[in-house]
Amino acid sequence: MSHTDHRGCDISGATPAALQAYERSLATWLSWRRGADVQIEQALRDAPDFAMAHVLRAYMQVCSRDRERVRSARPILQRAAQLPANGREAAHLAVIAAALDDDFAQVRDRLAGLLQQHPRDVLALHVAHALDYASGDAARMNERVAALLPAWSDDLPGYHAMLSMQAFGLVENGEVERAEQTARAALASNPFDARAHHVMAHVFETSGRAEAGLRWMNDHADQWANGTVVSTHGWWHVALFHLALGQTDRALGLYDLRVRSGHSHEIADLIDAASLLWRIELLGGDAGARWFELAQAWAPRIADAYSTFNDLHAMLAFVGARDWELARRLETTLAASRREPTRHGRMTRELGLRACRGLIAFGRGNHALAIALLARLPARCHRLGGSHAQRDVLHLTMLQAVERIRRPMRGRRSAPTLAALAS
């Protein structure tokens, strides 16, 4: 059996019912909402030989910073590789195989080829966009969508996601006004596109409009905070707006009620929690025993050797908790990892180990060493991945180290606002 999907791309092995379940799953994933996994399982129950359903299921695992989740895609790939597949589907399977082999150069090349041949393959674009984000390639993030938009129209399913991806690329490249216009256009097409609401948070953060950002996020919480995969991260953004206004107590309240209330062990949630507590303490807040719980949640990840972005946030938690044994273990692991001929090994050599040692120096009060280690990172730290708003934690730490050398008697609780710190 073969059909085309809702954007005209050929597919193999689908039934009409399975195709509908696949499209629901894809639409859910593109909008950053929960339930995509349930829909794709339904598609595979209806049509076990549906190649693109297996591809989508594998990508849901591969597009993660969680090493074990990524590895769980291998049996999915092995099953899919036994199925009849057309050229586009075979290309997707090759992308997944390259990702599992840690060959991200091959991943990028194959995705570029896929999109050149199939500009309406929104799944390929979604994965490429996620890879650009993870590798900090903001320029390519922008260029990909711009090259594909002429092949699209607003009546095609997934067009709002195209706009959301374009908007994020724009804001990361400093085109804030165009980013806001594009995100609003995406929301006009689909008010429940949580990705577009996330872009709006970045628009307000980048343009320094904390009060407007708070209004937007609170007014639209029903769209981005309920039933989405970005709920915790959205509350992280809300907390950052409070910090920009000097309201550390409100940020701590959000940490307790929204960011860390369920003690999640999801990597993305752990990243947000560590980053938020660190920023709160940079501004003179007192996280207290919260650090201990968070450090223990990060501890099983020390030996992952998978993502430098993860390593940095784990180190924030260990230093914040003053758990020097966990910090030492992670530093030792990274010192060994930097010798490996892997993507993680290369990033550890270039950025990860130096940045983590800078955080340790800062935590131990050796501010001169912290500055020496962190000052050389900014020109290259985009390669850590994530957004400007996330990576900014390293810059803010260095600035606080400078401030503590200049004014050594200032108490931590009298620190300036984030806006003042970055000025």
Q: How is the largest sheet built, in terms of strand order?
A: 1-2
Q: What coarse outline follows from CA principal-axis ratios?
A: globular
Estimate the mean pLDDT confidence: 94
Strand content: under 5%
Tell me about the largest β-sheet. 2 strands, antiparallel
Count of separate DSSP helical elements: 24
Whole-number radius of gyration? Answer: 22 Å
- State the end-to-end CA separation: 61 Å
* Low-confidence spans: 411-423
- Number of E strands: 2
Helical content, roughly?
Answer: 55-70%
> Which secondary-structure class do the elements indicate?
mainly alpha
Helix and strand sequence: EEHHHHHHHHHHHHHHHHHHHHHHHH
In words, what does this structure look like?
With 423 residues, the chain is mainly alpha-helical. It has helices at 16-30, 36-46, 51-62, 67-71, 74-80, 87-100, 104-117, 122-135, 138-148, 159-172, 176-189, 194-206, 210-219, 221-224, 231-244, 248-259, 267-282, 290-298, 308-320, 324-337, 343-363, 367-374, 388-406, 418-422; strands at 2-4, 10-12. Among the domains are: 1-135, Serine Threonine Protein Phosphatase 5, Tetratricopeptide repeat, CATH 1.25.40; 271-423. It has 24 helices and two strands. α2 (36-46) runs antiparallel to α3 and α13 (210-219) packs antiparallel against α15. The longest helix has 21 residues, at 343-363. It is globular and about 70 Å long. Residues 411-423 have low confidence and may be disordered.
Which secondary structure elements does this structure contain, and how are they paired or packed?
Elements: E1 2-4, E2 10-12, H1 16-30, H2 36-46, H3 51-62, H4 67-71, H5 74-80, H6 87-100, H7 104-117, H8 122-135, H9 138-148, H10 159-172, H11 176-189, H12 194-206, H13 210-219, H14 221-224, H15 231-244, H16 248-259, H17 267-282, H18 290-298, H19 308-320, H20 324-337, H21 343-363, H22 367-374, H23 388-406, H24 418-422
Antiparallel strand pairs: 1-2
